[in-house]
């Protein structure tokens, strides 16, 4: 008697991460359709985990993949691209050895338990990017940023930004005020109770002011929000079980525990002094990302957030690295109203009922009211437990309407990035890197920011497949 085993069929998105990404040198990009807009001048940078195995061994979590940067530069003549791995020490060591050597977010170092304490965690440099006047920073929240050449993407080495002393980390989600040029960020230093380090930098990235505050236990914090004169942290009820991590039972990711009874803790900081304005607590949720924040006419802080009911999203993202997911994890766009002087939440609204991730606003609106929020989402009828985000959308807060771009079957766009038109500041473009699972290729699609539901104004071909990534930025031409 023969047993028939049902074969698992992977979704098309898995093709983009099935093998390590291939770098390509500075290359002219062919126009597949349309025309590059005359007012689109500058560079799109994107970061993401591009190598998920080495020596036939797979990494433990999507967050553990080695970072690689894509740069797409638009000039008056042409669009060009370059794609390179960030040459971290860990990447170079493992490339030389031909095998994995280091532990990371979702994996312990190979070998006996004590081996993991002989090596630091590998800085994957894979989460986001910050374009400064003289360098590009590849960001990863568990260490220092890596500086790269803005044009060639050559890795210049770790950068302390003039203030990151030993033990200080620099997170992946800095906030830049386009009006003042100031850049804000944070880092978590572990300990029995973790320390929240807050940084203010000038427009060159140099840290000019710091503050440090003790937290309750070791919470998991990925992002924060700039809202007018305030910096606001929402600490979800996820805590690190340090014992399980120290004795080697679990890696960092598996040592994170969901404790909803703790609620979500709130910390409001004055952006000028970096001093605490208020602390508070509200109901339990989890978030990776905030869309934006601002202060309304009544003095309330308004925060838009991609909100999960629990921490199942971490399991889903772990499964992504295997090329097959089965854990549902839905996030919706919500709005929190907060009294800054007391940190009291006065209301929480759900703005959208469909999935929302990687929410963002035009760069000039960070920290201020923005009519539009851009996001990644799913096409209708998508089984979100088995797929990766496969559409992008724009929510108009004035009309409370959502406009979606449908990419068709088996196409997967990256986080949408808004680019202001250089000739008309009232106009903008939305850029996304698309993996086409039908042809196993990657392209750059450019939309009119007011017409996401129309055909892209331009599509560009890329020399090799760009794996699904996390965050990017638009650096306008000077």
Question: What is the structure about, briefly put?
Answer:
The protein has about 475 residues and is mainly beta.
Question: How is the topology of this model organized?
Answer:
Elements: E1 24-28, E2 31-34, E3 42-51, E4 53-54, E5 57-58, E6 66-74, E7 79-85, H1 89-97, E8 128-131, E9 136-139, E10 146-148, E11 155-158, E12 175-176, E13 183-189, E14 195-201, E15 207-214, E16 225-227, E17 230-235, E18 238-240, H2 242-246, E19 256-258, E20 264-270, E21 276-282, E22 286-295, E23 301-308, H3 312-320, E24 331-339, E25 344-355, E26 357-360, E27 372-377, E28 391-396, E29 401-406, E30 411-413, E31 417-420, E32 428-436, E33 441-448, E34 458-461, E35 472-476
Antiparallel strand pairs: 1-7, 2-34, 3-6, 3-35, 4-5, 6-7, 8-9, 9-10, 10-11, 12-13, 13-14, 14-15, 16-17, 17-20, 18-19, 20-21, 22-23, 23-24, 24-25, 26-27, 27-28, 28-29, 30-32, 31-32, 32-33, 33-34
